[in-house]
Design brief:
Pfam families: ADH_N, ADH_zinc_N. Residues 14-321 form the Enoyl reductase (ER) domain. This protein is of the alpha/beta class. It folds into two domains: 2-121 and 294-322, Medium-chain alcohol dehydrogenases, catalytic domain (Quinone Oxidoreductase, Chain A, domain 1); 126-264, Rossmann fold (3-Layer(aba) Sandwich), CATH 3.40.50. Helices cover 29% and strands 26% of the residues. The protein has helices at residues 12-15, 43-50, 116-120, 124-136, 152-163, 197-204, 219-227, 250-253, 264-269, 273-289, 305-311, and strands at 2-6, 16-20, 31-40, 67-74, 86-89, 99-103, 107-109, 143-147, 167-172, 188-191, 210-215, 229-237, 258-261, 296-301, 318-322. Helix 4 packs parallel to helix 5 (152-163).
Amino acid sequence: MLAALAREPGPPPSVVDVVEVEPGALDEGGSVRLRMLASTVNPSDLVTISGAYASRTRYPFVPGFEGVGEVVEVGEDAPRELLGRRVLPLGTAGNWQEYKVAPARWCFAVPDDVTTEDACFAYVNPLSALLMVDEHAHAGVRVAAVNGATSAIGGQLRALLDARGIEVIGLTSGATGRRVPSPADWSAVVSTAVPGWGEEVRRLSGGAGVDVAFDCVGGEHAATLLGAIRPGGSLVHYGLLSGRPIPAGSLREHPGRRIHLFRLRDIVHASSREQIQALLDRSYRGIAAGSLRTAVSGARPLREIRRLIAEAPSAAGKLLVTFP
């Protein structure tokens, strides 16, 4: 069968190859075999391949944190009712392959009224957005800033914050060439390519700074964003698109602020199956309502994964990996 393999840390288009591999064996712990139906290319996939998380990533590995598969074989201790069902295999990467062996306990059935395309994007971004807003958009929050405003999760954060009556300032880098789809949905949109953008965010928030900022970039950008937060406010750091950590000493330069590190994987692995299912149910409701739906701008088969990787950063929407 075909699988996309990241050989070593490095530029994703250069270190990922599509190769023939032997199908994995079902173990005795209740595993299932999935025929993958769809996957996607997420920023978290590309950052992990690049080596930003090398201390906790073993190479070579099959990337792909999101995907939908059909259960085609069940192991001895796996529930037979999963056979033939579409499921989300959570908890690990490995969705960039034609067949995947996954523990049955980490497979969550996709409702019949949810399309495979929508289900493919029901996990990483919606659950991250829901959990971060639940924890950090409390009653005292009046103004928030969201970087990566052109991204799918940027739009989802905006929708969830707006539903709570919070003004949202969107930040864009301009590096990908993408534009915010509906600028009028934001209270303001600020380009971080313009010098002094941090001061502009403070001005737009009323002068004191925003109450909370959601950061998927890290690096010096996050340090500047920290300065645009009011004393007592919080930076929620959930991504590393810059490939660089927040500089040491940033909190000393901006006393009174807090940095909260968000890792969906840690939360999911510490949650019960019932808690995860409840979050997925909220995700499906948000997708149906439109607030958590992800725009898809194209699809290519697994054998063209290098092309997908190259196109993903500048694509107007998400790209699907298909398995013809």
